[in-house]
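Practice problem. Given the sequence and the SMILES for adenosine-5'-diphosphate, write out the predicted structure.
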Amino acid sequence: MKHIVLIYGGRSGEHEVSLRSGAFIYRNLKKGGFLPIPVGISREGNWFLQHFAEEPADILPLAEETRDRISLTPGEGLTTADGTPVPCDMVFPVIHGTFGEDGTLQGLLEMLNLPYVGAGIQSSVLGMDKICAKQIWESDGLPVVPYRSLSRAEKNSPAWKERDFFGECSEALGLPLFIKPSRAGSSVGVTKAVNEASFYEGVENALKYDREILIEKSIAAREIECSLLGNRDARIFGPGEIAPSHDFYDYEAKYIDPDGAALLIPAPLDETLKEKIRDTARKAYSSLKLNGLARLDIFLEKDSERFYINEVNTMPGFTSISMFPMLCAAEGLEGPDLIRELIELGREEFELKNELIYKK
Ligand SMILES: Nc1ncnc2c1ncn2[C@@H]1O[C@H](COP(=O)(O)OP(=O)(O)O)[C@@H](O)[C@H]1O
Ligand SMILES: [Mg+2]
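Answer key:
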């Protein structure tokens, strides 16, 4: 387990974040004695082998040189334009959002028969889809924020004209309402509606990012996050707390405004409540059959002990100010050991899969 192909960048709106997360992984792979082989995916979706003239700092550069263009061949793996094989004992795909965290990249790696770090296809798909994840958690008796869903097809159907969807949602869930695409990230397409006009505006907007959207009851909440590590059963770190200085934890607060949010590690909560939150996070993890790693986000009602699972991220941010690695480090699992453990979990999963019989 020496050559670790670090795939970063990608086609999603979280390309920039991935360059930063990639730098953390690259640095810690080296510290841990691995040989990182950086492969950047451009915004257009092309893959390029990278050569760094100097040690990258906080952002991994991504050069698009024709001679370094990567080809993928089932049975042969990764090669450069002149047919040179790229050595690969394990893939570390640190790509967030669509085409990275949603099962597509995982499917490609499975077809190439390459071992990789993080969630498999099934749990990536479910973790990315907020409606599917909620349905599973609900059926396992776990607390989720009350919601309604809507598809583009329903909105285009003749029955839509007869429907008072705003009335249905506001009556069931109150006001304001949160509207979001079922599969997106980084708060893209997420809006808060306070009246009928902003509600329908939010619905139209969210439908630009996915054909299915959800409308949620607004929770006056503290945002609590746990890091989880493991295959099905997780070791848990945290919880920590995100205290956004904006109306909510929007794109601006996450990535643009340097004072957009404060990270409190550990979250200032009493131990009994923390244990309840950890217990729910652990159950939510195995309920989606997650493996590798995840960050589970929870809404804790202000001035109460009631909490709901908000969402799971199967490839959370790894930037220098990201909650996931910071929670691990605060409990003694520093970068190189964290990376080693993730690689070990990927290897374990790959070996188990290869023990299965696929033919008669
Ligand atoms: N139901 C809700 N009540 C209150 N705030 C919410 C609600 N849903 C989302 N938010 C706010 O919007 C942010 C982004 O929403 P989230 O569901 O986490 O989407 P993303 O996958 O884009 O991170 C949350 O961190 C929170 O600040
Ligand atoms: Mg979120």
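Check your answer against the key. The CA atoms of residues 14 and 81 lie 27 Å apart.
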